[in-house]
Structures are given as structure tokens and as C-alpha cells.
Amino acid sequence: MRVDFTINNSASDTAHYLTWAPSPLRLRILDAPAGSDVQVVLSEDRHSDGGSIRYSATPNGNFTPTLKVQLPTNGSTKIVYVRGKFGSPSKSDGDVSIVATASAEIGRMPVMVRIRKNADKLTAGERDRFISAMAMLNNKGTGRFADFRNMHVAGAADAQAHGGPGFLPWHRSYLMDLERELQAIDPSVTLPYWRFDKMAPNVFTLDFIGLPDNLGTVRFSPSNPLQFWATDGVQGILRRQLGASPGKQASPSIRTEAQTLALGNTFRLFRSMQGNPHGSAHVEYFGGSISSIPTAAKDPLFFLLHCNVDRLWAKWQAKFGRYKGADAASYDSGQSPTSLLKGHNLQDTLWPWDMDVAPPRPSTAPGGSMAASPCVSAPGLSPQVSDMLDFQGLVSSDAKLGFSYDDVAAA
Amino acid sequence: MATAKSPKSKATKSLKAPAKKVAARKAPTQRGASTSTGIKAITGLGPKVPSKKIAAKKAARKGTLDGSVDPNSLMATAVDPGAKLNARLNAIVKVGPDVIGSKQSFDQMCGILMDQAANPALRGQALSTIQAAAFDPVAFAKYRAQYLSVLRQLRTDPDPEVRQRVFGLLAREQDSDTQSMLLEGLDDPSKAQLSPEKALQLLSYDPHAGAYEVAKKIANRPPNDLARREALRVLAADGNSVDLFAGVVSDKSESTDVRQIAASALNHLAPRRMQEIARTMAMDDSESDDARAVGLTALAHFGESSTLSSDEPLREKVNSISQSTGNMNLRTAAQGFKARYS
Question: ipTM of the assembly?
């Protein structure tokens, strides 16, 4: 007798990844003698510093370390729910397993509580997997990363990304698309965030995001694959330090997390963070590519910076419960459903994933539709602005986007 | 070094420090550091601004980064030559994105930036504040033309830090006039506003800037190591430079820094040739540990998996390296290779 597991509605190994949001776990008894239901206890088996998981019979129920489940012997399935225990993310793939026990263990499936983390606190393994996946996605400037580079440029594309209240949703979609491409290379990878309001000594090193010399050319250790970074046919990364290194000192000109979260309880007020801390983080520490919109995405640091911008939005959403598009305080909608620049109204599709190239959209749509996730179905190939709000599926479980932050609970 | 010699040219003659004289006053080498000192008062960590019965200064002092203070009051402090430097810096920071809240504020901030007599830290913070506001392009659109005009005027500013920053900003906009100035400066030192290595670096933002010819000349007859390195970076997009990079990456007398750039360039321009060279480096016990690490990192991430997975001698060598080397970079690279091809 054994138990067959299906998680996230997929039989693929690439779906064995959890966040703080509940994932459906289908259980089925195989090779059982006919008879009455079998009682199975679900528990976890975790590495000493591995992730931790919790179970519940329902998505909104009480999640506990173990769960008793009655499974029929006729092969039909039963659905329960599993999620990562907030505060206990995984450090490596499969460092925690779902274990099913009857009189003895009858099933086991390694999973990962895959969570976006503070870049300054990654293990060496997490760091190396991330930079390795980034380097391979870019593939010396010839890879899929070029599409992401071409999405974040001047002109009409700039207006889609930055020209209105869609700034935060657009970048959430952008990061998610990139992260899914990274996970297609290495499913254990998530985007880390750079807390630009804190000193980050472990980020600004030769082994991670690189160190600029006095001229502003970024240098890497000989074993760092980012040394092969190239964009637009040009080798290397330009990032000139203007003052103290963020590895040694945080800039007091950049709004802190507390100041940012205190901007106001409506999205209209909160989105002023586009200037400070967002714009300030782009320009206060460094000149070079990251300090200008047309070139910012040439620097991998850009994605760590924006991951923190997105995390701040996520924290603000959690603080005030701003997940519903229908709630006026959750988004800065215009006077009518179409009054804002196309791409910024709540029900607009987001460029370039919608592949709309008619004005006022840009004339090209680099990269095409949104990368699919093996773990979640949302937001589909052509996301809308509204799809970006309920990222942990708190309003509708079907809306979850498949990522969580280490310090933003799904509750 | 495997680079060919070429006749001395106008470009190579120009490879001296910029001839332009700069102002006698001290230029900021650590702009952020001086700025940080001034801004500490905002967060209550630094010295407080002395109390004065001037409304604008009070506003600047009381304000926080929540933007709750009237921008006009803050700008009044920012432009007040009688106010203390810290108070003026604080005011500029607190104005933040509101610098584009009115034409007057923007003009005043540009005035600080263009004031050659102003403290360098003030000018630097004014530029950063305007730059940050540019990250909201729709709101910034009506100021953009004026902004670019100001930047162009500052290309001949006596402060080298200001020049360097504005040239960088304009180069990233692929401003053709700025690219022409950079090329002209490489060709004629009397017209150079930046060092040759900086000019080359900024020209590398645009592979179509027409810098290959001068970069080749500089790579062959470099005035200093940095200029040569930047010339190589420019040439990394030049399909005619494959042999140059193959020579540099294989040359054991070159620095690791330069061999890294050459490896990256070759990996992009001629990946199979890079793979062959990287294999040779990995198998060569007389090669430097760091150079072998560069080669193995290239193979692990960008090599042809079908070729590498069947290359038993290489796999055995890498296995041996990973067990015996005391060099952390080489061990990391070897382990990375093994993880992919074991």
C-alpha cells in the first residue's frame, strides 16, 4: 500500500514548490486491499535547517504540523492543503518532505518552501544558484534575458512601465515573468531583494553582484558567472559608486521601510514611493546603467532593487489589507475605467504580455506572453493590472501568483 | 601580449589627462559621503541645524521624508546662500520628487546644479534629486528638454565630478552630440573633457557609437592599463576582434582582470573557440588558478553540454582539481563544472 501525491494540480516535479499560500495536495491510496478507509497521518521530515510545512483540511482552515486524513481504498482522491510555515523557508531544493504514515510510512515527497528572500541573507548556495541562473538566462547577451532588457527602455515602453499607477503592477508582472524564466533553468531559484535602506555587505561582493572599480566598471571573482554578462552586444556592467558603498552604509536620503509604509493607507498616497524610495535607490548609490531608465535593466542589481520595491508594496498591502481591485483604496483608478493611459487602468491588460502593439502601446512586444508556472494558473498568458493585486490568493485562491516574501505572511 | 602594433595616430596622441583646467576649489571625490553628513539631521542621527527665525529653515528642519513639508519652503532654504550647508542639503533631499511639482522648483534646482560657486555636495544632491524625479517619466516629460539642455551645458563644467556624471547621463541617452564630443576628445586631447578610459567606457553604452577604430588604436598603444581595458570592452562587440581576444585570454602574462574581459568577449564572439581555449587552460597545470577558474566557469555555464559530458579526460582533470586545489575560486568553479557534468 502506498500513497500517490499530486501537488499544485500537477504531476510534474517542477510543481513541488510551496509558498506561504495554501497549495492543493491530492492524495490517493494505491495497491490497497479492498475495505474500509485508511487513516493516514501527514507530517513533515525536514533537514536540520530546512523548510517547514503545515497542513489543513481546507484552504482557510487551521494549518497544523500533522493532519489525519481518511483515504478511501478504491483509488479515489482526497484533497487537503499544504503550505510553508511562515518564517521557515527552505534553503535548498527538497529540504523538507511531505510524509504519509499509516501503520508505517507509505509515502514521501520532497518539496521546497520557495520564498523570495533578503539578498544579504542568502546562503552561498542560494546566492550561487541565483547568479548562475541569471547568467544562463542572459547567455552572454544572446539569451532570453534580452527580451527583459528590451521591455524596460525609453519611449512608449517607459510610459507603460512608469507612466501612471500601473508602475507597481507592471513591475510585479515583469519580475514574475523573469523569475519564472529563471525557475525554468533552476526551479529552486527565487528573486532575492536588496533592502536599499539597510547596509548590505553580503550583496556587494565580487562573488555576488560585483564591485565597481573607481572608473565604474564592475568586477567579479573568477568563479562568478556574471563576469560574462553582456547586454546590447556590450560586455560588462557599468555601475559607478557615488559615495559610501551600500555594502557599508545605507543612504539616509532613501526612505526607510517604515517611512515608506507610512506614506498613507490608500494606493494613491502609497504610490508616491515611485519617486522615493524607488527613484532615489536608483540614483543615490551609483551612477552608471542603473541610474537611468533606458539602461537600468542592463544591470542585474536592477532586479534586486525592484524586488524590494515590490516587497514594499506587498508589505503595504498586508498592512492595510489592500488586495481587492474593487476597493478604491487598493488601486489608483481613474475617473472612468478607461481614463488613464492604456496599460494603467485596473482592467487593462499589461504590455508586452498582451502583445498589443497599437498606439499608445509600443510598436513591439518583446518576449511575448507571460511565462507559465507549473505551480499556479494565474495570471494566465496576458495579465491585467488587477491580476497583480491578490498575489497570495487571499481574496481568491485561484489568483495567487506563486511567490511570497520571507517577511510578508499570507494572512 | 598578442596584439598587433599600429602606427601612432591622432587618437593615441590624445591619450593624456584632459587638458581642460578645472576650478581651483576642491572637487568632490566622495560626493555621497559629504552628502550623508549633511543629511544625518533628517533622521535625527546627526547634528541639528541651529534654530533661526526663518520660516523656510524651520520647515526644512522639521520636515521628514514623508514629504509633508511645503516644497516651496524647502526650496527657499535650498537656494538660500545664507543657510547652512546641512540645512540646504536636507531641504534638497526632502523636496525629492516634488522638484517637478512646479516650474519654479525645477528651475531653482537646476540653478543649484549649474552654480559653479555652489558647494559640490549641493550640486551633486541637486543632480541626484532631478535624476530620481526622472524615474516618473510622465510627470517629468515637460521638464525633459530643459533637463537635457542643462546636462549638455554642464559637459564643460570645471568640476570633473559634474562633468563625469552628466556625460554618463547623456551617453546612456545615446546622445549623438555627446558621443561626438567623447570621440573628439579621444582624437584631440585639447578638447577632452574626460580621461580616455572614461570616454571609452561611456562610448561602450552604444555599440554603434563608432568607437571601434579608436578603441583598436588604444588597445594597441594604451596610455595606461585602464584605458586598454576599456578599449577591450568596447571591442568586445566587434566581430573583427576575435583573434585579438583569443590571444589575450591565452596570454599568461596578462592580468586576470584583462583575461576575464577577453574571455567574456570571446565567449560572446566565438563561443566554440572560447570553449577550446578554456579546456586547454583547465588541462594546463602551469596555468594560473584564477585563469582556470574563469575557463571552467565559462564551460560550466555556456559550454556545449554534449561535447563536455563526453570529455572524460577533462572531467577527470576537473575532479582532480576540485580535490586538490587550495584556491577558493578554482574550487568553486570546478565544483560548478562537476555539478553540471558529473
Answer: 0.92
